[in-house]
Fold this protein.
Amino acid sequence: MGEATKVLFITQEIAPYLPESEISVICRYLPQAVQDAGKEMRAFMPKFGNINERRNQLHEVQRLSGMNLIIDDTDHPLIIKVASIQAARMQIYFIDNDDYFHRRLILQGGDGMEYPDNDERTIFFARGVLETVKKLRWSPDIIHCHGWMTSLVPLYIKKAYSDDPFFKQSKIIYSVYDSEFKSHFKSGYSQILRLSGIEDSDLKSIEGDDTDYVALSKLAIDFSDAIIEGSKLINPEVKAYAQQKVQHLFLPYQNPDTYVESYIDLYNRVM
């Protein structure tokens, strides 16, 4: 019997750690279903400030923490925490940092304005997950990204980590949802996100100084092997771009009662 397929879930939300939403509910039950189907899984999300560590029994994993990630010439310590969803026998890893993830709310302040460093948070989260997976010495076959905060993962996997033995064979699936951000990322974002192996031609989707939701989504699609329409109504420009890029590996929106089978079938097709 061969080794079980390994599926890495990277998502901006998982219930019950954050309120129920389309993303958080899918990312609560899909990993459990994948695990129950005999596959190995790991799941990562940001440790946003409104996640109650005591109630959810989060604790720091010292052997995984301690690395510094340099973003825009500033060191940011990477802290890894973990908790368990007992009913699912499932562990969730959390990416934490005092600069990026200790505010009371998730993506915007009490005034309704989106946090101006959401762009840097996408960089820290993506890099933090990939470096932690390497420390776990766990090589995923499938990496399933959920939501725009994971949008740099496909680029990093296909370019910056393309020769890394932990990710060299990994296939990327990106789920697009209707949870768009409204603000444009700061000027120079395409330079701040760079790692060795990323070239100007890789970043054509976010050329210029106006990286918005559509541009960032196109960047994720450029380096993904398959795309899932995670919400019934996603941005039409993003949907058309995805359909053109991956064609038969574009999975249309699936009924919430039956999506698991379709998702696992897509995993098998991508493999």
Observations:
- The longest helix spans residues 118-135.
